[in-house]
Structure formats: C-alpha cells, structure tokens
Amino acid sequence: MATAKAASEQAATETEQAKQESDRAVVEAAAAMKAAQAAKDAAAAAQGHAGEATDAANRAAYAADQAAFTARQAIGAANAASRSAHTAAMAAARAAAAAGQARTAASHAYDAAAAAIGDKVKAADATKAAQTARDAAVSASTAADAARAARTASQRAKDAGSAAGDAATQSRTAAQAATDAANSAAAAGADARQAQAAAANARAQAARATAAAQASQSWADEAGSDAGAAADAASAAANDATAAAAAADDAAAHAGQATDAAAKATAHANAATAAANAAVGASNQAARIAQAARKADDDRIALNGQQADDAARAAASSASVRPVPPRWDLDQVSTWNAETTRLITEATAVGTARATVLTDARKVALTLAGQGGPWTKTAALAALSASDNEVVDFITTGLTAAAGQDDRAVLAQLVDAAAPGFQTAGNAALAGSDIDVRNFLRSRDYPGRAQDDTLQVSQVMSAARTAGRTVVVQEGQKALDAGTDQALREFLDNGQFVALGMDDQLKASQIQSAARAAGAREVVNAAQAALDGPPVLLREFIAVGQYTAARRDQNTAAHNAAIDGLLAQAASSAATATHDADEAQAAAARARNAADEAAGYADQAATAANQAADYARQAQDAATRAAASAQQAQTSANTAAGAAASAVVSADRAGRSAATAQYYAHAAAGYAHDAASSAKIAYDAAIQAGNDAAAAAIAAKDAWQSVANKAATEKQQLIQQRRADCDDNARDVEAVNLLSNQDCVLLFSGSQAEQERILGHLQDICRQHIPQGDPTLARCLDYRNLFSPNYMATLRDDFTNFVTAGTDPDLGGLLVLIASLVCPECELADLLAGGAAELRAGAGAAALTEAADVAGVGLLDAAGAGAAAQLGRAASAAQEAAAESGALANEAAHLADLPDIGLLEITATNPSASEIRAAEEMAGAGSRVTLRDPVGTRAGGGTSDLVVDGVLWDVYSPTGTSIDSMLGKIAKKYSQVHGGGVIVDLRGTGLSAADFGGAAEALRRVNGMIKSWGKAELIGEVRFFGG
Predict the structure, then answer these.
(1) Residue 203 lies in a domain
(2) Average pLDDT, stretch 927-954?
(3) pLDDT tens column, 232-262
(4) SS3 letters for 517-557?
(5) Which residues of 107-144 are buried (b: 16+ CB within 10 A; e: fewer)?
(6) Which of the chain's ends, N or C, has fewer CB atoms near its CB within 10 Å?
(7) CA-CA distance, 960 to 571, in Å (whole number)?
(8) Which of 999, 981, 968, 980 is nearest to 43 (CA)?
(9) For the chain, how big is the Rg over CA atoms in Å?
C-alpha cells in the first residue's frame, strides 16, 4: 500500500529530526545545569557581600533563563518525537486497512471458488477473483514492510523522547539550582526578584518538558506496538489472500467437475468466513490506532497552545516594564527625564560651585549622548571629551542652542506634512526665536486648529467605521460631541489608540468564541495567546494570524476526514467480505440440501450488505468533508497570503515614512557634526593664539552658529545641487531608466504626497526585480538607495549606493548592522508595528520604532513558529521600515565616534539571515569579518566560512558599585557575542582602564565568568575608550 510506505518513510525522516533536536537539547541542558550550579555556588559564597550578591543574582537570572530555554528545547524535541510516532501510527493504520482489504479479497476469492465448484459458468468469476486476491496480497505485503519500518521509527522516536526526557530532567535540576541561587542572593541582600521570577518560569517550563517527554515516550511505545501488530496482520493477510487466489484458480480449472462439490463448497465457504472475520478485525484495529493517534494530536495542540500563551504572557510582562521612548515630535526639553532636568537646573543656577557644575554637566552629557535629537546628542558627545571650560559652556549655553536646533528640525518636519493653518503658524515660529519654536511645539495653537482637528477626528472615524472598529468610532463621536479643543486633541493623541486596542481585544474575543463553537482549536489557542500577549501580537493575530491558525485547523480537519474515509472504506470492505462469506455459506448449505441453514445465511448476507452500504455512504460523506476542509484550508491560505501582502504594503508605507525621516535625520546629524567640529577647531585655535577661555568660547559659539545658520539657509543651494545630480547626463543609465529627472528632483524638494508617490514607485521596482528573501532586497529598499540620484534595482554584491548630499555612509552602515544584530526578530516586529500605525499615518519613524520596541524579545515564540512560517518572508519587507531610527540611530552615531576596531572573526553556529545581511551591509566600510560556522549547520552544509566586509562590536557604558560588579554585567550582557568585541566607554565615569586591570586582564576575568556558566563561545576582545 503506497500510502503506508510513504507514511513510514516520513516517520523515519521525522524521527531523525527528533533525534537531532533531542541531542541538541541534551547538550544545552548540560550547559544550563553547569551554569546554574556555578550561579548557586557563587550565591552561596556571596553571603555578607552585597556587590558579589548582586553579581550572583545576575548570574542566577541568566542561569534560569538558560534553563527555561533548554526546557523549551526539550519540549520541542519531545514534540518532534511525538510527531514521528504519530506518522508511524498512521502508517500502521494504513497497513491494518491494507490487511483488511487483502482479507476481503481472500473472502471474495473463496466465495468465487465455492460458486465455481458446482457451476462451470462461474469459472471466469473465480479467475478474476484470484487475480484480485493476488494483487491485494502484494499490497498487503508492501504495507507489512512499511509497518515494520514504522515500528522501527517508533522505537527510535521513543529513544528521542527518552533523550528529551533527560534534557528535561537536567533543565529541572538547573531550574532548581537557579532558584536556590536566587534565594541565596536575596538572603545576602541583593535584589533577586528578577532572578526568582526567571527561576519560577524555568521550573514551569521544565515541568512541561518532563510531561511532554513522558507523553512522547508513551505514545511512541504504543505506536510501535500498533505498527508491529499491523505488520503481522498484513503479512498474514497477504498469505491468506495468496492461498485464496490458489483455491480460486483451482476451482476455475475444475469448475463443475468435482465429485464432492458440497464438501469443497463448504470448505471454501468456511475459509471465506474466516477471512471475512479477519477483515472485520483488521478494520477495528485500524480504527483503534487512528483514534489513539487523534488523541495524541489533540494533546500536542493543547501543549503548543499552552507554550504559545506562556510566551505571550512573558512578552506582555516584559513590555509592561520596558520604558516607553518619548514621542518623536516633542521639543527636546520635554523629552528629558526629571533627573536630567534637575542636574541642568542645579548646574546653571547662580552660585553653584564649579566642581558641581562640571560633575552635573558631565552626567547630563553622558545621558543625552545616548538620546535626543542629532544636535543635542552631538553636543553632548563633544562635551564628554571636552575641557572643563568647554563643559561649562556646554551646560550654560551650548545645550540650549543644540536643543533649539533639534526643535527646529522637528517643527520643520511637522510643517511639511501639516494642514495649511499649521504650516502658516509653524513657519512663523521657525522665523522667530528658539523659544518661539519650543512654545509652538508645546501648544500647537493656531487659527483654525479646531476645524482641522475636527476634520482629522472625522477621518479617523471614517477609516475605523470601514474597518469595523466600533470603539474607535464611539470614542471619536464622544470627542466631537464634547466640542472642545482638549477633547479633540486627547482623542487624536491618545484616545484613538486606546480605543483601537479595545477594538482589537473585542475582535479577538469574538473570533475565539466562534472558533470554540466550531471546534477550531488552533484558532482558539492563537486567540488566547494574542489576548494575553502585548498589543502588537494581538494586531498580528487579527491581521494575519487568525487565518494561518484557521488553515491549520482546516488541514487537520481534512486529514481527519480523509482517515475517517479510509476507515469507513475498510469497514465497508469488511462488511462486503462478510456478505460474500455468508452467500458462500448459503450456497454450500444448498449443496448439502440444508434449506433452513441456507435461508439463515441468506438473511445474514442481506444484513451485511446493508452494513456495507452504510459504511460506503459514511466513506463518501468523509470524502466530501475532506474535500470541503481542504477547500476551506486553501481559502484561509489565500486570505492569509492576501493579509501578508497587505502587511507588506503597510510595511512599505511605514518604510517610506522611515526612509524620509532617516534621510533628514542624516542631514541634520551631518550639520550637527560639522557644527561641533567647527566649534572645537575654533576653540582650540583661539586658545593656541593666546586668547582666554571666554574669548575662545565666543569663537567656538560663533563657529557653531555659522553652521547652524547654514543648515537653515542652505536648502535652496542643496536643491540646486540636487538638480545637477539628477541631470540625466550625470547619472547611470539604469537610474535614468528607472527614475525620471523630474521625480529625482521632487524626491528631494517635493511635497509629502509627491515623495510618497515616488518612494512607493521605487519600492515596487525593488520588489519586482528582487525576490523576497534575497538579502539585496533590504539594500534596494534602504533609504540611501531610494533617495540616491543613481537609484538601482539590480544591486551588485559589492555595490554601496549613498546619497550625495548631507549623508554619512559609515553611519548608515552601522545603523543597519546594529538594527539587525541587536534585534534579529525585528523583521516580524516591524511588520506587526505597521498594523498598529494604520490609524496613525504620518506618526514618524520614532513612533514606529517605539511600536517595534514594545514587541520585545520572544515575539517569535509568542506568535508561534507555525504562524511565523505562514507569514513567510513577508516579514522581511518591514526590515527597512523603522528599526534603524530612534535609539538605534543614537547608538550608531556613538559608535561612529569610537576608535577604529580593525579585523574581527565571528564564530556563529547556523548564522541567521539577519546576521549575514547585517555584515554584508558594511561592505566598503574597511573592516573585514569572517562569519564562521564550525559545525556546518548553515544552509548548504559544510564548515566553509562566509567572509564578508563588516564588523561586530558593541558599546558598554559601565555602571555599578564595584569593578567586579561592572565586569559581571559585561560578562552577562555579552556572553552571547560569539567572539565579538566590547568597547567599554569610560567617558564621564572617572574611571580608567587601569582600574579594571587593563584590557587583557578584563578580558580574562570576563571570559572566566562566561566559561564558568558553561558557555563555550567567548568574547574576542575588550577595549577601553575615553578613560
């Protein structure tokens, strides 16, 4: 039976995969247990030492996270083993069905033989029945072989489940050790709440892993037994069918010639009855196996649902405590936290001691160097390495001036996309002082504002009404009914998004309720995870996830209906065999002149015929259900594909906003860097010329202001330069063919609508020329390529296309590098963020980054691997949308100021596409990285290295109460860098490299900690900067 053979082969393949997963889980579990024990020992040794206790708590949290991770791996391995056993059980069920078919053929052959003995006319029927029996014997023999192979696969699946159980046991031990370590650290005075929570999660995961492993072993054992029994039954059925064929051939050869016809007819009839009874038994066996397999599949779906919900809850918990970045469109002062504001107030107060001013100013600079607009950040970075006099100038005048430039950049961006009334008022503010700009950003009052807000609320309501978002419509109507500016603004700034979340909750609950009534378990589970997870997961479920879950439910229903049809066919065949045997018995009775006995067999034959007809109708009904479920699954797949395509459109729309924001942010950053450099040069020159610090400060301020003025007045010159760059004679032939001269200029100087149109056209060209999943697609969609006069859709491997005016290509490369390596899940996160921005068009890159950040680590776990796979590569379309703005851009600019870091080798087992693409984005940056895969798990196999241009470093700004504590934090944070480097930024800390024992000693101590946690891959280098 071909289907049994295919199922057994699939079971063997799945078993091998399960074994590999189990082996990995065992290795990781051993490492986790070692790390947990080390953390426990460290916590025990830390009694009475608060600093060491804090380090021990951090190590305990890390160990608990590792234990939870290995427990999830063990669950995955156990699930893989269960899947293999399930497939083996299906092979056994099909083999049992094949045995039933062979028994039916044997019964029919014996019946034909009995008929031919006394009637020469029936010889042809006997010959035909003999051939049918021989064919059935061959099929049964093949099915027996398949069942034996399935039994072997089941035994190996049981071994894999046992290995998963070992990993689960080790994970449980590690979780308990992490719990002990956390409790000991708490007893020593450390804040171990995070470690204790992580340990509790690890214990829960380990318990589920143990249950999953035990269930997989039990199921594999049962599937193996069933496969063995099915193999024996199929072999016996093949032998019986062969014997029946011989009997039928013999009866055909001697039809009507037997002298003892009655005796032979009775013998054949008895054989037919025995074969029919065996066919009934085989049918029942197949039904029992299928029922057990269905129960195991139900358990698997329930476990997967619980895992998804756990991950969703964890993501929601993480998102709830993560600080939300300030809105991108606020004035700079409004984005500063209370402590920063206090320090600035203290430092600028009359009579504050100079030492206090310097200390406060450097603390402010250290904080603002990692946040805020490009002008503020650049000024803060310059202050970190400046002289005392320059630091005083920064806190007294420079910071205010830089913040004013950032405010102007924000207002200019708002004006570009605003209503006419806002534009008039905004331009008036821009023509005034920095205080005028800041006040307008805070109030946003202008004539006609109420009418504009009313129109915007109505537009939001219209879009919500079309989308069926009733709560948004209701809240919008309340704002309109209130009739006050405050109500309108509150709805536009906050209320619509709160209402959107409520609408999403309501919609997901309705979907779940309908799914529960329909028995759609995958949809019910996915909805529960969405309801318990962060908002971004809820939006993904409504947009795409519900359809992919529905497809899984419908595929399961189609599979179950197909199996029901197979079982009904087997039952119908068995009933037909019983009918044939009863007719044979009736014929034999008549040959023996036993009329009453013949009548009884005839009645039984009629009953069996009715049963066969009923089972045949059931088989037809099951086939109809299977076809309907398959069609529904295809419809859901099409809907999911359409939703994913819509997500791509949303991602591209977000990408256009982000690309525009990045372009102008780059230009502003360039001016800010030029201003800081000019100011530094002027200051140093004045000091060298013998001027005092006051005169030098004035010279520096004048130089800075000249660049700031240039930024405000140079736009027309830049437009002229852009026109020259867009001249067809100055551009590549491909760029001329793809981007007209007019659009090339308008992309730089046109309205927002014109930029949207042109950028959308260029994005479409990228997708037409480059297939989804190709790493060059991200480079084509990169804002540097989109805004370049030499835009290209067919990018060479060595091609780097940068905008010619006001850009910094190295910074752009670092942006992409950091975005990809810090957040490998951002491809999905950005896609999901796009959905939340549907009613927030024009919110800007920072808002999108905020939404992506809220998604948090573990988003893919929360969404479920199945949902992510159904999204396919559509998620990567959002890679370019928003991940490169906000905090990532700040960090990139910070890195840009750090010293050259040369060559680097990264050891990365099974490097992800985002890691590879991130390194490739650094092409031409002058550094080389070798991405090594020592175990050969990279696509294509083998251990060959992938050599690309790039660099993988991270920056750590030390905080803590002791050197040991800071080194412990470095070790914990960068234990997964895989050979990369860590730059320790000592600016503003008062520390030096010598305090850490030097770079070599710091590296030795950090790697010693990492090694003690059982990590095999250590960081490659520690460097100090600014100390």
Answers:
(1) yes
(2) 40
(3) 777 777 777 787 777 777 777 766 655 566 6
(4) HHCCHHHHHHHHHHHHCCHHHHHHHHHHHHHHHHHHHHHHH
(5) bbbbbbbbbbbbeeebbebbbebbebbbebbebbbbbb
(6) C
(7) 74
(8) 968
(9) 37
Based on the fold, state whether residues 453 and 389 are members of the same structural domain: no
596 in a structural domain: no
Of the candidates 23, 172, 24, 45, which has an alpha carbon nearest to the alpha carbon of residue 1012?
45
The H or E element spanning position 985 is strand 981-985
SS3 state of residue 492: helix
Q: Are residues 344 and 406 in the same domain?
A: yes
Q: What is the mean pLDDT of residues 671-675?
A: 58
Q: Are residues 236 and 157 in the same domain?
A: yes
Instruction: Return mean pLDDT, the chain.
Output: 68
| Helix/strand/coil (H/E/C) assignment for every residue in 620-656 | HHHHHHHHHHHHHHHHHHHHHHHHHHHHHHHHHHHHH
Residues 252 and 115 sit within 8 Å (Cβ to Cβ):
no
- Least confident range of 176-185, 939-948, 973-982: 939-948
Condensed to tens digits (0 to 9), the pLDDT of residues 588-639 reads 776 666 666 767 767 776 776 777 677 667 767 766 776 776 676 677 666 6
Q: Checking DSSP bridges between strand 946-949 and strand 928-932, what pairing results, if any? A: antiparallel
Question: Strand pairing partners for 982?
Answer: 954, 1022
18 and 117: one domain? yes
Task: Estimate the crossing angle of helix 809-822 against helix 913-920, to 10 degrees.
Answer: 170
Using H for helix, E for strand and C for coil, what is the string for 29-80?
Answer: HHHHHHHHHHHHHHHHHCCCCHHHHHHHHHHHHHHHHHHHHHHHHHHHHHHH
Number of domains in the chain: 3
- Which residues constitute the domain of residue 359? 330-440
Both 102 and 177 in one domain: the answer is yes
**Degrees, nearest 5: CA angle 669-673-679:** 145
User: For residue 906, what is the enclosing H or E element?
Assistant: strand 904-907
Residues 246 and 355 in one domain: no
User: Which has the closest alpha carbon to 472: 455, 494, 451?
Assistant: 494
Which residue has 């007719």 as its token pair? 583
- Percent of the chain at pLDDT exceeding 90: 9
How large is the average pLDDT for residues 541-551? 84
- The two three-digit tokens of residue 13, written as one number: 């393949």
What DSSP string describes 839-903?
A: T-TT--HHHHHHHHHHH-TTHHHHH-HHHHHHHGGGGGGGTTTSTTSTHHHHHHHHHHTSPP---
Least confident of 107-116, 451-460, 699-708, 919-928: 919-928
- Residue 848 CB neighbour total at 10 angstroms: 29
pLDDT exceeds 50 at position 835? no
Q: Which of 518, 537, 565 is the last residue of a domain?
A: 518
Q: Which of 255-264, 781-790, 913-922 has the highest mean pLDDT?
A: 781-790
Distance in angstroms (rounded) separating the CA atoms of residues 726 and 790: 8
Three-class SS state of 444: coil
Q: Nearest CA to 981 among 1025, 1015, 922?
A: 1025
Return the H-helix or E-strand segment holding 464: helix 449-467
Instruction: Please tell me the distance from the alpha carbon of residue 852 to that of residue 709, in angstroms, as a whole number.
Output: 35
Instruction: Sheet with 953-956: list strands edge to edge.
Output: 953-956, 981-985, 1021-1025
pLDDT score of 845 more than 60: no
In a domain, 466, yes or no: yes
Asked if 123 and 203 sit in the same domain, the reply is yes
> Closest Cα partner for 649 from 764, 545, 481, 794?
764
**Within this chain, do residues 244 and 346 fall inside the same structural domain, yes or no?**
no
Evaluate whether residue 952 is within a structural domain. Answer: no
Asked if 569 and 97 count as a contact pair (C-beta separation under 8 A), the reply is yes
Query: What pLDDT band is residue 690 in, cutting at 50, 70 and 90?
Result: low
